[in-house]
Specification:
192 residues, alpha+beta, five-stranded antiparallel sheet, four-stranded antiparallel sheet, globular, disordered N terminus
Length: 192
């Protein structure tokens, strides 16, 4: 009889715990849902501020074209001229951002970041807070202002002189990006 009572009490305790956890779980779900809703609103506001909510995709119409020692990278209303070699790569990091990097440094865990091309709405000047940037050009066909954001820290293995030399050669090439500069490797249909 005692054994039977113990089993009933244990079963009752298990049922009480199940209901208790179910109640806690519901309030946690409500908090999580509220949190996700807040995060969603924040993401939407940030996306709208950076101009990504308008459906712009920096890689729309993407094409690579060889032109002798140059490789022409066509994006959405811009052209970036890079050396025609396998030392650099690219990655779309968001709908409005394209990162260009030095492959060997990235593979070795040193970043390899050379420049990020960012598309902004014309009235958005939040880029002025960036530590090292240049206005690359204006894409009037897509109503975007392109900004070149450069790294401010070492992006290659400082103990590898060959890596440093190759990185600096590419970096000096992209560092010429600037609106109105005659030898800028970045152009839009509206460039002079």
């Amino acid at each position: 009889m005692r054994e039977h009572m113990r089993t009933i009490l244990l079963a009752g305790l298990v049922i009480i715990m199940i209901f208790a956890f179910a109640g806690c779980s519901g309030s946690d779900t409500d908090q999580k849902s509220t949190s996700e809703s807040t995060e969603s609103q924040t993401t939407t506001e940030t996306t709208t501020e950076t101009g990504e909510a308008d459906g712009y995709d920096i890689m729309e119409g993407f094409k690579l074209q060889e032109n002798g020692s140059e490789l022409l990278l066509y994006g959405n209303d811009f052209l970036l001229i890079m050396p025609n070699d396998d030392e650099w790569g690219y990655e779309q990091t968001s709908p409005s951002n394209l990162e260009i990097y030095y492959k060997e440094a990235r593979e070795d865990g040193f970043g390899g970041h050379l420049v990020t091309i960012m598309a902004f709405d014309p009235e958005d000047e939040s880029y002025v807070d960036f530590p090292d940037y240049a206005v690359a050009g204006t894409g009037k066909n897509v109503n975007k202002k392109f900004i070149a954001l450069f790294p401010t820290d070492v992006q290659f293995n400082p103990e590898d002189s060959e890596q440093e030399e190759e990185y600096m050669e590419l970096y000096n090439h992209v560092k010429k990006i600037s609106e109105g500069m005659a030898n800028s490797p970045f152009q839009t249909a509206d460039s002079d």
